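pls design
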């Protein structure tokens, strides 16, 4: 049996598992022989993805149609996965609202915050309980390169992703002694549906397949990952080295250029 499957199997749960990085995670884990729970809003897309993965990889695939912006979503997921041994949680679902904070209504922004911050943390609390008891398991958070710097027009998104990065790194230390690995990956813009849903059109997109492969290789070896040299220079180095009076106008201008 594959060492990865021994450590993180037999079941993995992936939020946003029908497209983009979520689907790529599903493909690569299915190729390792891992059974999958896919979570997404659209039932039709879930069923299509389920059939495709079963036909190609002959693995078990369970689907849960739920809106992660709903505060009751975690309870629904809890009921649906009862009896399954979840060894790997991938908090992947996400989108953004590209607008000045005061111009967007609070209901929409509250749903965004629930999706990218509250629900991933709640799901983590749910699943790591059993991982700790078993003495093995893993959690992956898909954050963003903007976690490293405040980003005007993405105030909720960059703030939420910064919080996820801090949270993920914090619990990685807490869970290390229980043999549970936590990795937070912070990719830059990628060729996924995120672009359209978030109202942006960004050049220089990263290859999501490479990001997913790098993430799975890094699980258990790193606590956080910022793929790409240019991302490291812009967000981790310049974003933290230069004063905010320089970086805030710079990132605001950049966001206005990619806003649709």
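designed seq:
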């Amino acid at each position: 049996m594959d060492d990865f499957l021994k450590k993180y199997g037999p079941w993995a749960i992936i939020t946003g598992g029908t497209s983009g990085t979520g689907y790529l995670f599903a493909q690569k884990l299915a190729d390792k022989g891992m059974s999958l729970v896919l979570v997404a809003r659209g039932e039709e897309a879930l069923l299509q993805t389920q059939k495709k993965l079963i036909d190609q990889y002959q693995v078990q695939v369970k689907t849960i149609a739920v809106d992660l912006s709903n505060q009751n979503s975690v309870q629904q997921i809890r009921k649906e996965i009862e009896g399954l041994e979840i060894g790997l949680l991938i908090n992947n679902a996400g989108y953004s609202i590209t607008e000045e904070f005061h111009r967007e209504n609070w209901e929409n922004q509250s749903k965004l915050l629930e999706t990218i911050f509250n629900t991933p943390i709640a799901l983590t609390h749910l699943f790591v309980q059993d991982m700790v008891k078993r003495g093995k398991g893993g959690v992956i958070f898909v954050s963003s390169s903007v976690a490293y710097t405040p980003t005007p027009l993405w105030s909720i998104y960059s703030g939420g992703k910064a919080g996820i990065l801090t949270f993920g790194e914090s619990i990685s230390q807490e869970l290390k002694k229980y043999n549970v690995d936590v990795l937070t990956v912070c990719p830059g813009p990628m060729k996924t549906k995120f672009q359209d849903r978030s109202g942006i059109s960004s050049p220089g997109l990263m290859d999501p397949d490479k990001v997913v492969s790098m993430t799975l290789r890094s699980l258990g070896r790193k606590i956080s990952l910022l793929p790409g040299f240019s991302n490291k220079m812009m967000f981790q180095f310049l974003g933290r080295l230069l004063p905010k009076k320089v970086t805030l106008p710079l990132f605001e201008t950049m966001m206005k250029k990619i806003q649709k």
